[in-house]
TrEMBL record:
Xref: Gene3D superfamilies: Metal-dependent hydrolases, Urease, subunit C, domain 1
Transmembrane segments: none
Entry protein name: Amidohydrolase-related domain-containing protein
Annotated GO MF terms: hydrolase activity, acting on carbon-nitrogen (but not peptide) bonds
Amidohydrolase-related domain location: 108-377
Region annotation Disordered: where it falls in the sequence: 389-409
Organism: Emiliania huxleyi (strain CCMP1516)
InterPro entries, per database record: Amidohydro-rel, Metal-dep_hydrolase_composite, Metal_Hydrolase, Metallo-dep_Hydrolase
Length: 471
């Protein structure tokens, strides 16, 4: 255990320095995330059962002292330090001001959740058509994303990565959170995802060149270098590569690799030269293998691996965020949500075909992160951040905590139930969980409108006329 923070989990401590620093650390050059929090009174959380995220057994009747934006001490020392307000702690500044107290007796106290795969700026589209053609305003997108980001805090999520965004909304939203203009979790962001002309998962909706939605098409090595450098200059914490994609005439193959390993290496080397990590969408063996060998810092999905891909991931010890929540929601609840049977089967099979290899990667020591892909109608923001079973904890943000009233040790599903959340502390401040859940009406043109649900054939019209005549 570190002096003033909880111990870093063994698996997460193996993250590369670039990955660990960029996942949730404040962007260089802006006010640090703790700015302004020193005005908050020290907070003592007493009596709860603490799960520290390290894999150690829960410890009952614990106390945690939070000062500003960091955890100063845990255990009996926390109570002693809080009782001697104004007295300096070893290696730390003095604790000043009255101490606020939270009685967590009979409750669980655990680090806030990290969601390593969100899409807050997408505004929950139900189709690629909506995502790419029904988000015409950067200003409105930013305003609505700022409204939605509060939902993560209300769900106990105190840190997240939004790897690719519409327009440049991610950097603006992150900056607004850091200066206190918007209430939200710690945020790390990418810019627009880099795609080759083959595209990603939207087929011919992606143009041959230029920008559409979150997708920036790159056509040459020079284009890759220029785009990476531009995104970093404009504030991206991460560079996102969409390495696998679907070819419309080859849907039965599933996603295939649409980048060469030399192209991936060029993007990685360019980003790393500017001290910026790279995250990649990879959903087949070739793309996962090449991304791992090329030095990508975080793999999203890494599904459908073969032995060669698994070996490359283990050799590189590159962190993986499987993001199976999206697939699981479709497989289990897709029919009720109106998804097609074909789509449901595709995602059900992806989980089934990938679970063994992902487990083998985990058993070999590969760091695993939790991601929900929140930002679509099948994964609305604030609803599913705790679903993946091995949810990581928010260690980089030491004072981010939440209390939970039910069975956190034996049934992790309670993390996905806001009714069990008693309090959330983010960046040294308590989150008001009594505020109404943010809701809104669709804006004009946000959803795909249909003239009719079915073709109005003459036969259909005659049948309607017959029913009317019989009444």
């Amino acid at each position: 255990m570190l002096a003033c923070r909880l111990a870093i989990p063994r698996r997460l401590s193996t993250l590369s320095s670039a990955t660990a620093n960029a996942l949730l650390q404040p962007h260089a050059g802006l006010i640090p995330a703790s700015a302004g929090s020193e005005t908050s009174a020290p907070l003592l959380i007493e009596g709860g059962t603490v799960i520290d995220g390290s894999g150690a057994a829960p410890v009952s009747s614990q106390a945690i002292l939070v000062v500003g934006d960091e955890i100063r001490s845990v255990g009996p020392e926390a109570v002693q330090a809080a009782g001697a307000v104004g007295a300096p702690l070893p290696g730390a500044d003095a604790v000043r001001g009255p101490v606020r107290r939270i009685d967590a007796s009979g409750q669980w106290v655990l680090p806030g959740l990290i969601d390593a795969h969100c899409h807050v700026s997408f505004l929950e589209p139900s189709s690629n058509d909506e995502l790419f053609f029904h988000r015409p305003s950067e200003g409105l997108t930013a305003i609505l994303a700022a409204r939605d980001v509060k939902k993560l805090l209300l769900a106990g999520c105190t840190g997240f990565l939004d790897a690719d965004v519409l327009y440049n909304v991610g950097a603006d939203l992150r900056d607004a959170i850091e200066i206190g203009a918007v209430e939200g979790p710690r945020m790390a962001t990418g810019g627009n995802a880099l795609l080759t002309a083959v595209g990603g998962t939207a087929g011919r909706l992606i143009p041959e060149d230029g920008l559409r939605g979150y997708a920036q098409v790159v056509r040459s090595g020079e284009d890759i270098v220029r785009t990476v450098r531009r995104q970093i200059k404009h504030g991206a914490d991460w560079i996102k590569l969409h390495i696998s994609g679907l070819i419309p005439r080859q849907i039965s193959r599933g996603e295939i690799s649409v980048w060469s390993i030399d192209e991936i290496r060029l993007a990685v080397e360019t980003a790393h030269a500017l001290h910026t990590p790279v995250v990649a969408h990879v959903r087949n063996s070739d793309s996962t293998r090449d991304a791992a060998r090329a030095g990508v810092d975080l793999l999203l999905h890494a599904t459908n691996m073969d032995e060669e891909a698994l070996e490359a991931v283990i050799d590189a010890m590159v962190p993986v965020c499987p993001t199976l929540t999206f697939q699981a929601n479709l497989a289990e609840y897709g029919a009720a949500a109106g998804a097609s049977p074909e789509l449901i089967e595709v995602f059900r099979r992806e989980i089934e075909d990938s679970s063994v290899m992902l487990r083998r990667a985990y058993d070999a020591g590969v760091p695993m992160l939790c991601g929900s892909e929140s930002g679509f109608t099948i994964t609305p923001v604030g609803e599913w951040h705790g679903r993946e079973m091995e949810a990581p904890r928010d260690d980089s943000a030491g004072s981010n905590y939440m209390r939970n009233s039910g069975g956190g040790e034996s049934d992790i599903r309670v993390l996905n139930d806001r009714n069990h959340l008693m309090s959330v502390v983010s960046k040294g401040r308590a989150v008001d969980l009594t505020v109404p859940w943010p809701t809104r009406r669709p804006f004009r043109g946000e959803k795909v409108a249909q003239w009719t649900g079915v073709p109005l054939t003459r036969e259909l019209a005659l049948n309607i006329d017959k029913k009317r005549a019989s009444k």
